[in-house]
Structures are given as structure tokens and as C-alpha cells.
From TrEMBL, chain A:
Name of the protein in its database record: Sugar ABC transporter permease
Organism in which the protein naturally occurs: Frondihabitans sucicola
Membrane topology term: Multi-pass membrane protein
PANTHER family linked: ABC TRANSPORTER PERMEASE PROTEIN MG189-RELATED, ABC TRANSPORTER PERMEASE PROTEIN MG189-RELATED-RELATED
InterPro entries in alphabetical order: MetI-like, MetI-like_sf
CDD domains, sorted: TM_PBP2
Cellular compartment(s): Cell membrane
Domain ABC transmembrane type-1: 32-225
From TrEMBL, chain B:
TM segment ranges: 28-51, 94-118, 130-151, 177-198, 230-250, 286-307
Keywords: Cell membrane, Membrane, Transmembrane, Transmembrane helix, Transport
Organism: Frondihabitans sucicola
Protein name in the entry: ABC transporter permease
Top-level taxon: Bacteria
Similarity-based family: Belongs to the binding-protein-dependent transport system permease family.
Residue ranges constituting the ABC transmembrane type-1 domain according to the UniProt record: 91-304
Membrane topology: Multi-pass membrane protein
InterPro entries per the UniProt record, alphabetical: ABC_transporter_permease, MetI-like, MetI-like_sf
Compartment list: Cell membrane
Tagged with keyword Transport: yes
Low complexity composition bias: residue spans: 1-15
Region described as Disordered: spans on this chain: 1-20
Automatic annotation (TrEMBL), chain C:
Protein name stated in the entry: Sugar ABC transporter substrate-binding protein
Gene3D superfamilies noted in UniProt: Periplasmic binding protein-like II
Signal peptide range: 1-26
Key words of the record: Cell membrane, Lipoprotein, Membrane, Palmitate, Signal
SUPFAM superfamilies, A to Z: Periplasmic binding protein-like II
Length: 240, 317, 435
């Protein structure tokens, strides 16, 4: 595919793929697994945290509700570039920098995910059902787990999808945080192929092939998840 | 600014939870993980960055090189950021890019959504997924691939115009660069925004159209005079998010930078922030610029919301 | 209500503490060093094959184990090292580019290795090489690879057009004109504005000193007479269309090299490896020659690129780290491995001598005198002092010169503007500057 762009002439796609997966004793495979871990686990935790927060913000009235909601929403205004270094310094203080957790923890909080969850919860969970359960003596946690959560699944799938794509493609945070090659996700690994000192040739064709390969799991995931996919939630709060 | 973003809470009066104590602490319990993480990984870093923006690095001590120490400097980082002509031209570039990218993205998203909403439309699920897939391609990879298609030496488009004797297309020169840049982000943005608008369209009760059809209106007239006015709130939402996204333009120009000398290291504000934070080791200056950018975004969003709110509320009354 | 809020806040604080405590026991990143005397050193380097070199060391040094990580090269990686160092997490050893070393010293990243460097190590480096890591008489790193400047060119095509290999820059200009005349779609070379290292190198060759230190004060010479002459010279070639100023190492440039439209690359001794990677169609058609000179008969050249290994202040095992760094870069085995496994041009003299016995790079298999020419070139290099704000100069240079080229304004004015930016930045930082 890329040889048509005269980027790696003379070497076919299959040769590139073979080179890619054998580079550095199969590091590419390890990076891919790491990406799956960061995006999968991070996306899952992020979805869960967002769903809980969104449910609370949509279905309860309490002091500070608006303040909390708009503070969190305001988080999208600060670019990640500015936050990465302070986050690194903070996690270093507690001895976490460089670990898997240093990449996982900061990505769990997602203002957009919380916003979507709130909108979805507001429209998908009937207040009457919640009230009825309460009158039957169900605990608040049980109401959330048995009534709210199942109703929110389609919305959570979307949040998971968006978070998964976001984490999969995130470069700067893992680049700043990690200092062990075996923890790298794909983005950082591919960066190290491209970015060498000025006396060392960069591995262009490997990096390009790797970048193309790294998109495939995302597309597969989208095709698989689209059956659950109800993006209605995005506009749920806008009707009327 | 927040009125339109507030999701509708149905039956506000009755949704008040039970007056028992555990009911009252429940929302805090559900919010706890989010709040803890929000404070740790956003509030604290933001406060740190804001505090850092009031400092600067100075050389102290003997020797030729001395040692760099951080000292308090007040607002001087803000002054030098705001008086830097590069920042102004950066916002200029951003403006030209946004003027193309935001309306085209929203226009195409609206068009596709309306087309998918026509009752006779077939294969909507497939089309919806196909239009959405570019969103999954990372901006950097998309920019790299588009770079091939833009560069005079490798562009198939320029091959064609060259063969016709027209010379190569100046994709990477001014003013073409703004269109080229917008094009890269439009692909990813259209699908995302289309879904928002499409689902909003699906929420409109079908009987509204029936009346119009009985009056002899065709699908185009229905789209223009009924559907579009009804999805204005969704359009406002997508506009705000697109605007925030446009202001944080960074990946595409950074990827194209090595391919053309027209993109400087301070071409857009976020590239300047990156330069300060990662190239010239001036985090305080990067922090000051980030604060300026964030405040600018708030003001701009408020203006957009203010205008649209007045319009929609005027329309309602 | 108020009470509930306090409870909620208290709960938040508790969970935070638990979270942090629980996690930090799980995934700490502190360097393990047990009481048994066994030491583990962390080492960041981007050179390919470093893992193999490290494995060889680890096999013969069971008490000093090295753990290698590729943290990338380039500017962002230097920021990563700085950030890690500020947090006290820097690896024991790291590869750094010569250009960024001064800014790292200012930030207190490397330790002074003067006392740890043995006489044998010093003897294995040319004076100019060691000077690249020496400031104020203190040695801050072990040179790993060097990039003495050289010209690689398409011998087949220059021969076809009957163009002699240029030995001076005037001849280079004349050759560029001939190439244009012979094939208007080809160019002798592209010298784009973002190649700060190239322009700094040829200016140094002309006698310029972009940074110099005298009596404890800095002098910036980006706009000194020699540099401005260099600017005028290359602007002359570019204005006449003899050379290109399009960016290099882009897909377009690579395609042009592959299709015989770019006929030379004035850069440094590492160039053959890069071209082999991006333009495999041209392998076997290149030759390396000494870089053209400003004055006929001169032979000294400057450096472009290259890197050294530093030991950071965060290392608890400076002595062991210094021992490894010297083995890797200045020992006979190490320098030879750098040549054959990492494919870089070693900084150590022994490695450069070994090179003369090995086959020439794949790009020019028939040029059997490649490495003896290389050794001759590197025996006569001009020591360069990089300033503590090289990165500021680098971005300013690329941006300012690009603008001058687009607006068709004077290159030497661009050099003067860069000078102004760099001086202002140094003064703002608190350096003593004579300009």
C-alpha cells in the first residue's frame, strides 16, 4: 500500500510487516498489547466512573451539583500538552511515574464522557422507576446497579468507544510518563522508531507500516460495537 | 453560557430523591471516584500550571553555565505572550483554518444526516459507519497520509494537473495550506458531528412531516423548513465542540511541518505551547499561554452561546 | 447539609490517600539496588542495537547490570529527560545530542565526570571530540558518535554531466549551475532553512563562532562577518535557482533522491545510512568526498550531529555508570561494536581506526577508501561550542530563515534576527553576554 507512495520503494507490504513484527525481538507485539491494556482497561474504568458520575448528576439534586458539573466540563478547555508535565511531576511525588498506573489513572477522568453519561442517564432512566424501587426499599446502590446501569449500557458503549479511540491514539501522556520500553503503547513505540538522533537513520518504513497496522484494531472494534451503538444520547438532552 | 448545554432534567420537582439520609449522601458516593480523579489529575495540575505561569527560570551561581533556578516573576510571562507578534499571527492562522473547517464540517455533517434521514434512504447503517470510521484514524496518521497526497513530488492530484500542463497544486503554500489543513480534520469531524445531528433528527416525531407532506411539500422543502430549525440546538452543541477542537489545532500542522517550510514552530498557539514546554524548556511560558488560550475559548464559547440563545429564545416567544 | 459536605470531603481525602498508598506499593519505579553489591543502571539511548551492546556488557559484568530503554532521540526526548530529572527520576545514564548538552548542564542534569574519566579513555578521543563535552574544564559526558561534515554525491550522474567533484563552495555553486543547465528538473542539493546544524557547520568552517566563551562571558556570533557571508553565498545560489530550499527527508525529497533528481547531500559521515534507508533505489551509485571548503587547500570541517552519554545526578552509582559509559564508547570493544552493530561513526579513535578495516557502507560498496577518507576528515575537525539555549536558536533559525525565503528577503537579515532572539533569550535567562 505504501510503496505506491514511493515511501518505501522496493520493499513490499509483506516484507514491511515481517520486519515490523520482528523488530527488537517482537516489541511491536508487546506495544500493541500494552495499547490494548491502556485503552481497554482505561476505557472501561473511565466508562464506569463516567456512568456513576453522570447518573448522580442527572438523577439527584444536591448542593454543588451545577458547580461540580461545570467544573468538570471546563476541563476540556485546558489542552493535554499543558497538563502532561504537571501530571508527571505529581505522580513522581508519589513514586508512580513510569508505571502502568501513571498512564491509566489520568485517563480515567473524562469530562466529555461524564457529560455524555449525564445526558444519557437523564433521558434513559425513568424517574418513576427509580422512585418505585426506592419505595420498595431498594438501596441506592442497588437501584444504580440493577436499574440504572442496564438502562445506560448503550450510552456506556459509546463512551467506551470514544475513550478507547482517544486513549489508543494518545501520545504525549505515555511519552512523558513512561521510561521503560516494555511499558510503551504503540504511539510511543512508533515515535521511537521515527525519532532518532541526527546521526542515526530513522526507521521510516517500519513506522509507517506500524501506524497503518495500529488503526486496524480500532476499525474492527467499531464494527463490532456499532450494533450496540446508540449515539442518540449525544442529542438526548437537546430535544425540546 | 451554560444554558444550552444543560441537559433537560425531566420532572424536576418529582425527581428530588427521598429525604432519607442515605439518599442524600448517595450522589456524593457515586461522584466520588470522578471527583477524586478530577481533583488529582486536572485541578491540581491546572493550579500547578497557573502557579508556574507566574515564575521564570534564571541562571544563578558561578561558572560559565551556572545553574538554572526558578524565580517568581509576576505577570511577565503573560505580558510577553500577549505582546508576541507570533501569537497574533498564530490566532490569525487558527481563524482562517476555523473559518473553513468548522462550517464545512458542520455543513457536511448536516447534509449527510439529512440524507440518511430521508425515508427512502437505503443502507443507512453501513453509510453511518463508513462516514464515522475516519474518526478512528489518529490525526497524526491522517496528516501523514494526506502529506503524501499534498507534496508536489508525490501527489497524484498534482500528477494529473502536471500532465495537463497546469503545474502542481499549491497544497502546502499560502493560502492553500489552510484548506489542506482543514481538509484533514474535516474527514474525522464530519462523522462524529453527523451522528449527533442524525440522532437529533430521529427524535422529531414523524407526524410533523405528515402534515407537511399532505400540504404537498417535497423532501427538500421538509428538510429546509422543518428539520433544520428543529435541530438547531444540536447544531449549537456541535459548533461549540468543533470550535474548542479547532482552537486546540496541533497534531495536523505539527505532522505537516517537516514537509513544508511555510509552517513555523509557532504557526498556531498550541504549537507555541508545545515549543515552550518541550523544545525550549520554558514551562512557565507554556502555562501562561495555556491560561490565555483557555480564557479565550471560554469567551468565544460564551459569545456563540449568547448569540444562539438569544435567537432561539426569541424564536420560541 | 453542611455536615454532609464535610463528610463527603473527608471521604474524598481518605480515598485519595488510600488510592495513592495502595498504588505506590504496586508499581514503583525506583532503581533497585540491593545490599549484595549488585548494581542496576538504567540507560536511555536511541541508537539501534544498543540492547545487544548492553547484553554483552551484562554478560561480563554480573555486578553492574544495565537496563536499556529507547526513549527516542530528537528534541522532545531531551525535554523528557529534563522533566524526569526535575522529578528525580532520571535514568543513571542517557544518550544526549551535543547540541543539547549545555542546556542540560545548566538544568543540572549531568554530573561532572572529570575525575572518573581514565587517561586511557581520554587518549582514545581526538581533542576536538572531547571538547564537545567539556565546559569550563569539566567533562560532562562520553562522546559516542560524531558527525564530521562530508559530502555524499551521485558519482554516476555527475560523471555523466562531466562535473568534477567540488572541493570548494564556489565550485559547488558552479556544479549546481551545471546540473540545472543539464537537467532543469534536477538539483545538486536541497539546503532547507530548518537544517540549523548544516548552516552552523558551514559557518563554523568559514571561521564563525556561533557561541564562544571568554573571561566567563558568552559571545553570540550567529551574525558575525563569516556567518553573514555564508548566508549571502547560499542565498545567491538559491535566488538563481541553482539549489533548492525545499525540506529534506520528506516523502517528496525521498522520491526525488530515488528518481535521480537530487544529486548530492552535503551533511556528515552518517549520511550514507540515512540515504540507504530512504532511497534504496540508488544504493551503489553514491560516493563520499570531503565537504567543499571556503578556501582552496583548507581541510578542516565542523561537526553536524552526534551524541554523547552522560551520567545523571539522580544516579546513586556514578562510578559504576561512568565505568559502563567508558566501556560502551571509549573501549576498543565498545567503539568497535558501535561501528558494526549500531552502524554509527564512533567518536573514539580506536573505533575510527577499526572502521578503516571494514567494508564501506552499503550505499557505496565500491568506495573502498571510504573509511580511510573518513578518518582523514575526522582527524581535522573544528571544535564547536554550542550555547545553553541551542533549542531557542534552532527554532528561531528555522522559522526566521523560512520566512525570509518565502518573502524573498535577505538571508543575512534573518541571521541577524536570529542573533537578536538568541542574545535576548540569554540575557533574559541571566547569562553574561558581551553582545
Amino acid at each position: 500500500m505504501f510503496s505506491t507512495f514511493t515511501f518505501a520503494p522496493g520493499t513490499g507490504l509483506f516484507q514491511n510487516l515481517a520486519d515490523l513484527f520482528s523488530y527488537g525481538d517482537g516489541q511491536f507485539g508487546l506495544w500493541a498489547l500494552n495499547s490494548v491494556l491502556y485503552a481497554g482497561l482505561g476505557g472501561f474504568l473511565s466508562t464506569l466512573v463516567s456512568a456513576m458520575a453522570g447518573y448522580a448528576l442527572a438523577k439527584y439534586e444536591f448542593r454543588g451539583r451545577s458547580l461540580i458539573f461545570y467544573s468538570i466540563l471546563g476541563g476540556v478547555l485546558i489542552p493535554g500538552i499543558t497538563l502532561a508535565i504537571p501530571q508527571y511531576l505529581l505522580l513522581s511525588e508519589v513514586g508512580l511515574a513510569g508505571s502502568y498506573l501513571s498512564v491509566l489513572l489520568p485517563i480515567i477522568i473524562s469530562p466529555f464522557g461524564i457529560y455524555l453519561s449525564r445526558v444519557y442517564a437523564a433521558s434513559a432512566i425513568p424517574t418513576d422507576t427509580v422512585e418505585a424501587a426506592r419505595i420498595d426499599g431498594a438501596s441506592e446502590f442497588r437501584i444504580f446497579r440493577s436499574i440504572a446501569l442496564p438502562l445506560m449500557v448503550p450510552g456506556m458503549v459509546t463512551v467506551f468507544m470514544l475513550q478507547f479511540v482517544g486513549i489508543w491514539n494518545n501520545f504525549l501522556l505515555p511519552f512523558v510518563m513512561l521510561s521503560d520500553q516494555s511499558n510503551y503503547p504503540l504511539t510511543v513505540g512508533l515515535y521511537t522508531l521515527l525519532s532518532k538522533g541526527s546521526g542515526t537513520p530513522a526507521l521510516y518504513s517500519l513506522a509507517i507500516t506500524g501506524a497503518a497496522v495500529s488503526i486496524i484494531p480500532l476499525i474492527v472494534l467499531m464494527l463490532v460495537l456499532q450494533r450496540f451503538w446508540r449515539l442518540d444520547l449525544l442529542s438526548g438532552g437537546l430535544k425540546g | 453560557m451554560t444554558a444550552t448545554l444543560t441537559p433537560r432534567t425531566p420532572t424536576t420537582a418529582r425527581s428530588r430523591p427521598s429525604r432519607r439520609r442515605r439518599g442524600r449522601s448517595a450522589p456524593y458516593f457515586f461522584l466520588l471516584p470522578a471527583l477524586v480523579l478530577f481533583v488529582l489529575f486536572m485541578v491540581v495540575p491546572i493550579i500547578y500550571a497557573a502557579w508556574l505561569s507566574l515564575q521564570t527560570y534564571r541562571i544563578e551561581g558561578g561558572g560559565i553555565l551556572g545553574t538554572r533556578v526558578r524565580v517568581f516573576t509576576g505577570l511577565s510571562n503573560y505580558v510577553s505572550a500577549l505582546t508576541d507578534p507570533d501569537l497574533l499571527s498564530g490566532f490569525g492562522h487558527l481563524g482562517l483554518y476555523a473559518v473553513i473547517a468548522v462550517p464545512v464540517t458542520l455543513g457536511l455533517a448536516l447534509l449527510f444526516a439529512l440524507l440518511l434521514d430521508v425515508p427512502a434512504a437505503r443502507g443507512t447503517r453501513f453509510s453511518r459507519t463508513a462516514i464515522f470510521i475516519p474518526y478512528a484514524v489518529p490525526g497524526v496518521v491522517a496528516a501523514l497520509l494526506w502529506g503524501f497526497l499534498y507534496l508536489p513530488g508525490t501527489s497524484p492530484f498534482s500528477d494529473i494537473t502536471n500532465a495537463l500542463g497546469l503545474g502542481s497544486i499549491p497544497f502546502l503554500k499560502e493560502p492553500g495550506i489552510f484548506g489542506s489543513m482543514a481538509n484533514i480534520s474535516i474527514w474525522g469531524g464530519v462523522g462524529f458531528n453527523m451522528i449527533i445531528i442524525f440522532t437529533s433528527l430521529r427524535g422529531i416525531p414523524a407526524d410533523i412531516y405528515e402534515a407537511a407532506r399532505l400540504d404537498g411539500a417535497d423532501e427538500r422543502q421538509i428538510a429546509l423548513s422543518i428539520k433544520i430549525p428543529l435541530v438547531v440546538p444540536a447544531l449549537v452543541l456541535t459548533a461549540i465542540f468543533s470550535l474548542i477542537g479547532a482552537l486546540q489545532l496541533y497534531g495536523e500542522p505539527t505532522t505537516l511541518k517537516p514537509m513544508t517550510s511555510i509552517i513555523s514552530q509557532t504557526w498556531v498557539p498550541l504549537m507555541t505551547i508545545y515549543k515552550d514546554a518541550f523544545l525550549t524548556d520554558d514551562l512557565p511560558s507554556a502555562a501562561a499561554l495555556s491560561v490565555i488560550l483557555a480564557l479565550g475559548t471560554v469567551v468565544l464559547s460564551a459569545i456563540v452561546l449568547g448569540i444562539t440563545n438569544r435567537r432561539t429564545s426569541g424564536a420560541r416567544s | 447539609m453542611k455536615k454532609n459536605r464535610i463528610v463527603a470531603l473527608a471521604a474524598t481525602a481518605t480515598v485519595t490517600a488510600l488510592l495513592v498508598a495502595g498504588c505506590s506499593s504496586g508499581g514503583g519505579s525506583s532503581s533497585p539496588s540491593s545490599a549484595t553489591g549488585k548494581v542496576t543502571l538504567k540507560f536511555w539511548s536511541w541508537a539501534p542495537g544498543t540492547d545487544k551492546l548492553v547484553a554483552e556488557w551484562n554478560k561480563s559484568h554480573p555486578d553492574i547490570q544495565v537496563k536499556h530503554t529507547d526513549a527516542g532521540g530528537g528534541d522532545a526526548s531531551s525535554a523528557k529527560l529534563l522533566t524526569a530529572s526535575r522529578a528525580g527520576n532520571a535514568p543513571d545514564l542517557s544518550a544526549v545530542e551535543y547540541t543539547t548538552l549545555p542546556s542540560l548542564i545548566v538544568a543540572g542534569v549531568p554530573v561532572d565526570l572529570t575525575k572518573d574519566v581514565t587517561a586511557a579513555t581520554k587518549k582514545n578521543y581526538a581533542k576536538g571530540t572531547l571538547q564537545q563535552v567539556t565546559f569550563d574544564g569539566h567533562i560532562y559526558g562520553l562522546p559516542q558518535d560524531v558527525g564530521p561534515m562530508a559530502l555524499i554525491y551521485r558519482s554516476d550522474i555527475l560523471k555523466k554531466y562531466d562535473i568534477a567533484v567540488p572541493t570548494t563552495w564556489d565550485e559547488f555553486g558552479a556544479a549546481a549551475a551545471k546540473v540545472k543547465a543539464a537537467d532543469p528538473s534536477a538539483t545538486l542539493a536541497s539546503l532547507p532553512p530548518d537544517q540549523t546544524g548544516f548552516f552552523a557547520g558551514v559557518a563554523t568552517q568559514a571561521g564563525a563562532e556561533w557561541w564562544s566563551i571568554k573571561n566567563g562571558k558568552w559571545t553570540v556570533g550567529i551574525a558575525d562577518k563569516a556567518s553573514l557571508d555564508v548566508a549571502d553565498f547560499f542565498q545567491g545560489l538559491a535566488d538563481k535557482g541553482y539549489i533548492s530550499t525545499e525540506p529534506i527527508l520528506t516523502p517528496a525529497w525521498n522520491a526525488e533522491v530515488n528518481t535521480d533528481k537530487v544529486l548530492s547531500w552535503p551533511s556528515a559521515l552518517w549520511a550514507p545510512g540515512v540515504i540507504s534507508g530512504v532511497a534504496p533505489a540508488t544504493v551503489g551509485k553514491w560516493t563520499m568526498a570531503p565537504l567543499p571548503q571556503w578556501k582552496k587547500g583548507d581541510s578542516a570541517v565542523a561537526y553536524q550531529g552526534g551524541s554523547a552519554v552522560i551520567v545523571t545526578k539522580d544516579s546513586k552509582h556514578t562510578k559504576e555508570a561512568a565505568e559502563f559509559a567508558q566501556w560502551l564508547n571509549a573501549s576498543k570493544t565498545g567503539a568497535s561494536n558501535l561501528l558494526t552493530i549500531s552502524n554509527v561513526y564512533p567518536a573514539a579513535i580506536s573505533g575510527q581506526q577499526d572502521a578503516t578495516k571494514t567494508a564501506p557502507p552499503a550505499l557505496m560498496p565500491k568506495q573502498t577508501d571510504y573509511y580511510s577518507t573518513a578518518a582523514k576528515i575526522s582527524s581535522n575537525t573544528i571544535p564547536v561550542t554550542w550555547g545553553p539555549d541551542y533549542n531557542v536558536a534552532n527554532t528561531a533559525f528555522g522559522d526566521t530563515l523560512s520566512k525570509a525565503i518565502q518573502d524573498h528577503t535577505s538571508w543575512s537579515q534573518a541571521f541577524k534576527d536570529v542573533q537578536k532572539t538568541v542574545v535576548a533569550d540569554m540575557k533574559k535567562s541571566g547569562f553574561k553576554v558581551t553582545n
